[in-house]
Design a protein that fits this description.
Glucan 1,3-beta-glucosidase protein, hydrolase, six-stranded parallel beta sheet, six-stranded antiparallel beta barrel, glycosidase
């Protein structure tokens, strides 16, 4: 029951689903046998017992209409759109703040006029609630779900312990020279950001800059969460999955204010390498002209404070061509295009084997990078985590350590060709292969030698031989079935070589 949870409501007595006609903006009926988009509501959590229900079209259920009927006609939510929810497993009662219970009446409508207090038997005020999606677990859900005091306690503990100076020293020992640090827009109002967010992120960023300087590491500050959300995902602090950033000049202006704030604070810091103006704007929700205008204005903001800091612009995710940003005149120097590469999140990768994933890196990603790098435009930036970001993870089941080593090595080799370098998403994670430190410590990603341990020369030699053979095979572009069998046989030989030397 967190913000953005999608629910469907079915009347126990009528056996029908509650539906916002036309997706919202009209009456509410209880007459659908099958639930789809019009019958799905997003929760806005007010407290652990009070909620607002947002329709597919963006309007809210409200009990402020004529008579006792509930409609889906409110464009914003306040007290008339706030409803108590009483739960008994998957059964619920809905009650207005005025104290009246909502029922499915004989006319197949929702009305707030149930007499008395309903029990949990089959009555008109009892609904079966199905949670059909609960995917958002970001900053907004954490802060609003816990409440301010508990959220402050949880996040303070996290900020003080999750990443430390030792992590920066670890990165430095392994040849990492830059970190990309995601921030939310509310950092500009720290230590007292607007609800439900809690303070502390600015102090954490200050510490990161101090540790980076001590470890001779540079920092990229990335506006990962913009007001209104630029992609509807949890990592952009979306409240309910909506993409509203590009729809509001106020949100865009506020984002530029955040860039200004960050520049004032860090532009002259010796550890600053660049400012990323926005992470992963959605192609479906952010028009290109709006994004380019924002990038141009953001570039000017950065240049007001620094003539040398890199200004990083991220490609749109979804159905968008990376070349579109090369054709936009964002700025005249130190502009970087951030590409995000994952062998995940697309049905295309779902059935690929280990060798197919490696082939894709060389046959698809490498030519694209080379073409973009040779174009007349800004530098190409491969960034960690979700885009440009890359990760040593895929959809291959039961992959061996050697499979991961080959896949990681292919990505390192190709992404090292980007003129601005690459970033890995992410430093630490509860999923092992997303965790950079785990990959290095457990030799699933062979980044290079460590000052604390000599490299395994035989293993590196085996991998070098394996990669040479693998690249030779790929360059033959063998497509027929017999060729594919040879491909598999060679890959098995390479795995044997790697295991023998290991």
């Amino acid at each position: 029951m967190l913000d953005g949870t999608k629910v469907q409501l079915r009347s126990v007595t009528l056996g029908k689903y509650v539906s916002a006609e036309n997706g919202g903006g009209m009456n509410v009926t209880v007459d659908r046998d099958i639930a789809s988009l019009w019958e799905t509501f997003k929760l806005w959590r007010v407290s652990d017992t009070k909620f607002q229900f947002r329709t597919f079209g963006g309007q809210f259920l409200t009990w402020s209409g004529t008579g006792n009927l509930l409609t889906a006609t409110a464009d914003s939510a306040s007290s008339s759109e706030t409803l108590y929810v009483e739960r008994n497993d998957d059964m619920i009662h809905i009650k207005t703040l005025g104290g009246s219970y909502v029922q499915a009446n004989a006319e197949n409508q929702l009305s707030a006029d149930y007499l008395g207090v309903p029990g949990w038997d089959a009555n008109a005020a009892t609904f079966q609630m199905s949670i059909v999606e609960n995917n958002l677990h970001g900053d907004y859900q954490l802060a609003n779900g816990y409440g301010h005091s508990k959220a402050k306690e949880v996040l303070t503990k996290h900020q003080n312990s999750f990443v430390t100076a030792d992590d920066f020293a670890f990165l430095s020992r392994h040849g990492i020279n830059t970190v990309r640090i995601p921030v939310g827009w509310w950092i500009a109002q720290d230590p007292n950001p607007p609800p439900p967010f809690v303070g502390g992120s600015l102090a954490a960023l200050d510490k990161a800059f101090t540790w980076a300087k001590a470890s001779n590491i540079k920092c990229i500050i990335d506006l990962h969460a913009a007001p209104g959300s630029q992609n509807g995902m949890e990592h952009s602090a979306s409240k309910d999955g909506s993409v509203d950033w590009a729809l509001s000049p106020e949100y865009i202006s506020k984002s530029l204010d955040v860039i200004d704030f960050l520049c004032v604070r860090y532009a002259k810091h010796p550890a600053l390498l660049g400012i990323e103006l926005l992470n992963e704007p959605s192609a479906a929700g952010v028009p290109l002209d709006v994004l380019v205008s924002y990038y141009k204005r953001g570039y000017d903001v950065v240049r007001t404070y620094s003539s040398t800091a890199y200004v990083i612009i991220c490609q749109r995710i979804g159905n968008a061509n990376p070349i579109e940003l090369y054709e936009a005149d964002i700025g005249d120097h130190n502009v970087v295009v951030d590409l995000h590469y994952y062998n995940l999140f697309d049905p295309y990768f779902a059935s690929l084997r280990a060798i197919d994933n490696v082939n894709f890196i060389y046959n698809s990603r490498q030519p694209q990078l080379q073409a973009l790098d040779s174009a007349n435009g800004p530098l190409t930036f491969i960034d960690h985590i979700h885009a440009g970001e890359w990760v040593n993870e895929w959809n291959v089941s039961n992959a061996s350590q050697f499979d991961y080593q080959i896949f990681g090595n292919a990505q390192l080799e190709v992404y090292n060709g980007a003129s601005f370098g690459w970033s890995y998403w992410t430093l630490k994670n509860d999923r092992m292969h997303w965790d950079f430190e785990w990959n290095i410590k457990n030799k699933y990603l062979l980044l290079g030698s460590s000052s604390t341990k000599k490299p395994n020369i035989l293993l590196l030699l085996a991998l070098a031989i394996a990669m040479l053979l693998l690249q030779y095979l790929i360059k033959q572009n063998i497509e027929i079935e017999l060729g594919q069998q040879k491909d598999d046989a060679l890959y098995e030989q390479l795995k044997f070589i790697g295991k023998s030397f290991t």
